[in-house]
Amino acid sequence: MQSPLLAKLTGRLGARQALLEWKWMNEAAASAPSKFSLQDMVRRRCFGEPLQYILGTQPFGPLNLLVRPPVLIPRPETEHWVIKLSETIRPTAQNPCRLLDLGTGSGCIPLLLCHLWSPGSVHMHGVDISPHAIHLANENALLSGISTPSDGTTPRDKNTFGTTLASFLIPTFPDELFQIKPPFDVVTSNPPYIPWKEFLELPRSVSDYEDPRSLFGGPSGLEFYEAIARFIGRKGMVSPDGVVALEVGRGQANAVEELIRTTGRVRHTEIWTDPWGVERAVVGRM
Ligand SMILES: C[S@@+](CC[C@H](N)C(=O)[O-])C[C@H]1O[C@@H](n2cnc3c(N)ncnc32)[C@H](O)[C@@H]1O
């Protein structure tokens, strides 16, 4: 006979999704019974809380990252373009690169790249306006074994990741960054890109739990790309042969491509499609 808890979950999620999540919940309950009760997990899930927040982790490539509200849960479409980027650029310890991640959230983008690129080949810095995000990104760095030197040094044999609480919308950005100074060889970002008018279309599991600051990109959804274009257009911010890789929302790729091209600094652009056929990342080469 089906467990009443599974029946409740099925009523909320449908049979296929409920069975999958029931399996993960059972695994969590078996691994840490004092932390996870099936009853509590099913109650929270039926209330609309994302499973990742309930379990507290989300796989991202080979990493298993901590996730906590209100920091954005890393998405599979982000994982896809980040892995592709890791295969497109190949920094080496002899010629290490400096990467800036704008709106780092859980730190998923730089931490996956730190993990995939060879030791000593990259020194990364993540910026976010949310103290919750900065805290979580630092915890994830520790958990992933990525060193975060507090003394400002950059070890030659290790990839490093540091963070700064800052807004990249302010015109003087990145003057306050202390650990890595421009120019950056790679700039990555999955900025907030949902236009305000789409607020009502968001699933409650997103709008009720994830920080609105991580979702909304102004009236048109393009406010953060405009700031990024101004940033890369400034002399000395991105290396002459640098790369900019930006995640975009559905239907935004052409507008973002145009924005970075009009900086006059980007020579070549590409649009990358995600596994669901959506144009998902704009990659520009200086
Ligand atoms: C769409 S989330 C992406 C998070 C993470 N990079 C990922 O891919 O899962 C955007 C992030 O930008 C941050 N953010 C929003 N406004 C910002 C600003 N003005 N300056 C810096 N970060 C900002 C949010 O706090 C959020 O963590």
From TrEMBL:
InterPro entries: N5-glutamine_MTase (IPR050320), SAM-dependent_MTases_sf (IPR029063). The keyword Electron transport does not apply. Keywords: Methyltransferase, Transferase. GO terms for molecular function: methyltransferase activity. CDD domains: AdoMet_MTases (cd02440). GO terms for biological process: methylation. GO terms for cellular component: mitochondrion. The keyword Methyltransferase applies. Transmembrane segments: none annotated. This is S-adenosyl-L-methionine-dependent methyltransferase. It comes from Macrolepiota fuliginosa MF-IS2.
